Every structure is written in structure tokens, then in C-alpha cells.
Amino acid sequence: MRKVKILLIGMLVMMLSGTAWAASYDDHVKIAPNNQGDVLIFPFYAAIDGGFETKLTVVNTSRTESTVAKVVVRSEVFSQELLDFLIYLSPSDVWTGTLRWDAAKGGPVLFSDDDSILVAPATFATPDNPVNQPLVPAAGGGDSNMMGYVYVINAATAELVDDGAPGLKVRKSRILDWYQPLDDIDIVANYPPQNILAGFMDFNVRDAFLTSGLNAVTLRDYVSEQKLTVRFPTLLGEVAQNNRLEVEAVLSKLDVSMPYVNTDEDVTLHFFTFPTKYHYDAALRDEDPLGPFFRQNADADFCVKFAYEAYDLQENKVTDPSPIFSPTPPEDISRFCRELNWVDSMQFAFEEGFTRYDFMDPVTGGLNESGEPLTYTGAPVIPMQLNLGQTGLSMKYGAWTDGIVKGTIDRFDVEFFDYHYSDTPNHNYFDYLND
Amino acid sequence: MMRLFTKNSPDCMLFLFCFALALIVISGCTHEEQDKGTDLAVDFDIVFSGDKDSDWPDSRLEERFTDYWALRFKGDAYGIYRMEAPYLQALIPEGQYRNYVRGTARNTLSKIEIFDISLRSDNFVEISMTLHFVTDGGREQSTCRRDRWVKTGEEWHHVIRDPLFFPAAS
Lengths: 435, 170
What we know:
The structure holds 2 protein chains of 2 kinds. By secondary structure, chain A is of the alpha+beta class. Helix content of chain A is 16%, strand content 40%. Chain A has 2 domains: 28-242, no CATH class; 244-435, no CATH class. In chain A, a hairpin with a 2-residue loop joins strand 27 (405-409) and strand 28. The model of chain A is unreliable at 6-23 (pLDDT under 50). Chain B has a domain at 53-169: Nuclear Transport Factor 2, Chain: A, CATH 3.10.450. Chain B has a 5-stranded mixed beta sheet, with helices on one face. The chains are: A alpha+beta, B alpha+beta. Chains A and B meet through strand 6 and strand 24 of A and helix 5, strand 2, strand 3 and strand 4 of B.
């Protein structure tokens, strides 16, 4: 009888403490509208032998904290890891590096003469001794190392004191000496990564004065819980406070809209990056693509279906029903099969307008890192566009409708409003329950 | 009443003077434009470096290569568009091509450093090279390229490489 009483009391405590169990709903990875966070995703890079190159800039915005972050370069078709490395950032520090094609090496390289990156063990790069590291060749299947995407994960952050440096500066060797002996437990307990990184990219053909820039897509409160090194691949949604389902949920979009120009002088490319698919790593593990969205919603080839409608400047679309003829032209349906996809404006019927891409209401479900049910609608995609025209080169992100994210609290399905950007509405929900 | 010019009226003289002036201005502009395309004074160096022994497989290719880069840095989009492979001229709108290359004229080419010339076939050559140039702000810069040339008929043609904007060429 005593055992039954203890069991009942235990169950009552668990029921009443439901909100504490839901900490992960209450504190999850989010898109950072202020562009400062602990994960930066550059949705596109090109290092093409015809002249295009991509300069990456990562800023440590903290005035007091030093931090170590891992940069991962992945390929366009299968997300093959092409290069990864650590950067060591002192307070208010910036790292820059350029992915470009190198004639002497005969392929794409990372070039950096910035002192935040190692050129050899315990030796940081300088203008006289820069990093000029080739990307590994793509494994085949139509993949390439000349284009892809890049992400940066903050690994560990600390307020370091460096008696050997002038003023309040911290030498890179001091950061390296601090980071090297750390293990996972040290990082989780004492040096968790902070939301202090900002990222910028410049895409250009320097000899042609074609250049355009874009911020990185910035996530905050991701919180890696691992000592990141170059020995093992680092994938979004692994060994962190947020799993891949949660990363996908904040990137989820029901539809995407982007303008285009399509004339003899102007061309627009619409890009769609799926940074959680990880086809290549999945193949190494003998699994389907790693992103839950692709396992649950992609077709047999792991491609993502979408419908699109191109509008002109007078709100006309190709699929408008004719008042005098039938049937109505069918909606255009196509597939994205790569990790980095693009659509050329040449296939749109009008000279200028916008295109709406609809991912046809897919639903993805599973458990978040805390083991709670989480579902979202839409596709985990980053849309951006590149335009070459009379005014030069320009890049910008698309507009979209956020996917709907739902959880289960006290056996009720709950829709998390503004889940992509904030915890606050969920706090309000808990307050409501507690009142 | 409609006012008419008479042969010797001051208005007529003024009109003829303005017309002649306009013609001079227009022809002057045209002449300048044409000069830009035909003045092929090459004021940059072409040097070989790298481990491999490289040489031009065909002196005509060397000539065309030199002309192409001289024209490109002079901003003659019209001229270099016509040096592209005929199938590219059919696929790439000239306006898009012009927008793609026109900024090059803001730089001054100082040197082309060739690392390797690979004869992929009798009619297809790849040239790995670095362009060294000075920006209009006076800053020395360089970029690397793998320049492609294809022989169609009896002539070498450039093959512009950009899988993004000109995927047909890649």
C-alpha cells in the first residue's frame, strides 16, 4: 500500500511539473532577427574557374568574450563535406576567408591570411604565410566542389584574460591554449557557446567589378554541446540542445515568393538551400537522408516536390483560367533534388514579376531533443535570389510564409505562434496554464 | 500660319549649323567607340610559371587569346562577344553578356600568368592562369581562371565559363 502511495504521489508531482518538463518548447533554437547568434548559414558559395569567388566574414560581436567556432563547407548536390576548420576569435575580432578557384592548385581553395585561422598546428595565418587549402574533390554523381553552402557553429565561449597581451586584447595563442584541453563536459558546464557570432558574405567577380553581399542566415540558442574538432564531421542538429527536427522547424516555410527579371539584359536565379538533408553523410551511414523532412516527405529519389506560379507586373499568371477556353493550364510542378537548387528566370513566361513556390503542405513530425512531440508544416529551406542586370549583380533573400509548428502540452495540441523567432508566446501559454 | 525655312534665312543657317554639329558629335562618339574595339595595343605581359612545360599548341590561339583579354579589359563587349564560340552566341543574349563583362574595363590588366596549357583534344584547350590587374582606385589585385578555347572551323573561339548565368557553356 505504501508503494502505491509513493507511486501516486510521484505521478501527481510529474503531472504538476508538466511545464518544467517542457523546457525545450520554452527554449529552442530560433532565427535571429538581429543577425547575432551561435549558428551562421551561408546558403550559397561559388568558387568557379570562370571568375566567381565568395568572401566569408565572421564577426565576434562580444567586447569581452573570446570564442572558437567551426566552419564547414559542403557541396551543392549531396552536401559532401569539402573542408572544415576552426576559427579562433578574440573579443571584437573578425575572420575573413575567400573560397576561390586557384590556378596553381587547379581547383577551388580556401584562401585566408587572417590570424584567426591555423595554417599549421599552433601557427596562425599571416599575410606572408596564408592558408591556401584546396577543397576536397566531390565524390561524383554530378556533384561539384565549385558550389555549395557553408555553415559556422559556435563551439565554446569564455572571458579569457591574457596577461601577455597589451590592454584588454587576447592573443590567438591564448585562445588555442584554452580550447585545446577542453572536453565536452567542460564546454557544457563552463564554456557554452554564446549568441555572439555574425556572418556576412560577398559574392563577386573581382576583375569584372561584379559584387553583391548578403548576411548569413543566423540561428540563436542552438547551443552545441560538443567539443568541435576537425577530426569528425559536424552536422546541424547533432550533439546540441536542439536536434535536426528543431532546426528544420525554425527553417520551415509553407511557400516562398521572389521577384524576377527576364529580358535580354537581365537574368534572375532563385536559389533554394536545404541544409539539413545531408544526403552524403546519410549514404556513409547507410541511411536515408538525415533530415526528418526528407525521410517523411520526399519522393523515392528524396526529391522535394513544389508547385510554382510566375506572375507578371499586372498580377497575371500563366495558369489563369481563360474566360473563353478550357481547360485551365495545369499548375507547374517540379522537384528539388539537390541540397542547393536554383531556378532560372528564363523559364518564366513574363519579362518581370514574381514567382510563388508552394511546397504543397508537407507535415513533418517527431520528438525534439527533450523527447517532446513536435510537428511542423512546410519545407526547411533557405530561399535567396541572384540577379545580373543593367545595374550589376544583386543578392537578396526571398519572402515566405512560416511553417506552422505544433507541440503537445498536457495532452493538448498547441500551435506555437512565432516559434521561428521567439520563445515568448510559449511563455505566455505556460503562464496561462499556471494561472 | 506655318513658318517655313527659306534657303538663305538665318533660321535655316542656324538649323544647318546645329545639324552639322550634331553629326560631328555623333560621328566622334561612334569613332571613339570603334577605336576602342580595334585598337589592340597590348600593354600587358604574358608570362609562364608553374611546374609543367607549357607552350601554345597553335600560334593563332596565342593571338586570339591575347586579343580577347586585351579587348575584354578595354571594355569591348561587342568585340569579345563575337570571339565566343558560335553556339554560345546563339544561347547567350548579347545584353546579358555585356552586363557580365562590362565592369572589367574599370581595371587595367598588367599581367597574365599562365600555369598550364592543356590540350584536351585537337580542338579544345584549357589555360590555367592568373589575371593580375590594377583597379581604378590603384589597387593591385589578381584572380585565377581556367580559360577555355575551342576550335570551330579554322578559328579559335573563347568559351565563357559560368554554370550559374550561362549554364549552357558549362
